[in-house]
UniProtKB/TrEMBL annotation, chains A, B:
InterPro entries to which the protein is assigned, alphabetical: ArsR-like_HTH, HTH_ArsR_DNA-bd_dom, Metal_resp_trans_reg, WH-like_DNA-bd_sf, WH_DNA-bd_sf
Organism of provenance: Salinimonas sediminis
GO terms, molecular function: DNA binding; DNA-binding transcription factor activity
Record-given protein name: ArsR family transcriptional regulator
SUPFAM superfamilies assigned: Winged helix' DNA-binding domain
Taxon lineage: Bacteria, Pseudomonadati, Pseudomonadota, Gammaproteobacteria, Alteromonadales
Length: 109, 109
DNA sequence: CTGAATCATAAGAAAACTCTAATATGATCA
DNA sequence: TGATCATATTAGAGTTTTCTTATGATTCAG
């Protein structure tokens, strides 16, 4: 029935998924959320941890975290009163990795 | 002075470029603009061409094209009364290619 | 149980984005 | 020149996103 379609690229697939792609990109297209997601690459962090790294108020951070949870881009684990967040969407990881290549690497700490 | 930093990934670079990354992603995070950009992969198209493929009014398309021009994601060429658009940002091409892999390939025409 | 700490939620204001409708610009052609 | 075609621009309305402020829920220590 279906044949192997081995063109080097078929970006047109997005045309049929433009709504989903728009939605996905919108979830990433926010400074606070980008910083959250980037901070979570390779490690789990608590909300307090994130608050020390990102300059936003607690409710604002919490609202962005709620959005990311809803989007299933992150998941949580509770330990006492602390809630740890981690990345759960490999697509996010890939996009962050690509975007990362667009900017010059800065001096590591 | 600087040393080779050859970690497998250093997504933290985005942290220092979160504003730019947000701006870049916002420009992509729109159905009409995604369809425009995707339609332009590998080919030049006129505004009329785009209008036949994308279901929006002429002024709306023109406004989105203005934004993409401003963002330098596309460039134009005039031939008589027709204006042709083409992609000019390799980063856009790369992101579209990646997003594309997130969706199942559909049957080619 | 009371209080403090950590995190979440909700309502409304403010800001940003997108569309509608009307008009303008530039090119071609009779 | 005047009409028409292709595309762009503008003002304002409508919609969506984000923030502010206040409050709620859960956990733990004393």
């Amino acid at each position: 029935m279906s044949v192997i379609t081995n063109e080097p690229e078929r970006t047109e697939v997005i045309l049929e998924h433009a709504n989903e792609a728009e939605h996905f990109l919108k979830q990433l297209a926010n400074k606070t959320r980008l910083m959250v997601l980037t901070s979570l690459v390779g490690k789990e962090l608590s909300v307090s941890d994130l608050l020390t790294r990102i300059d936003v108020t607690q409710p604002v951070l919490s609202q962005h975290l709620a959005l990311l949870r809803e989007a299933k881009m992150v998941a949580t684990r509770r330990d006492g009163q602390v809630i740890y967040y981690r990345l759960t969407d490999e697509r996010v990881h890939k996009v962050l990795g690509l975007i990362n290549t667009f900017y010059p690497a800065s001096m590591p700490d």
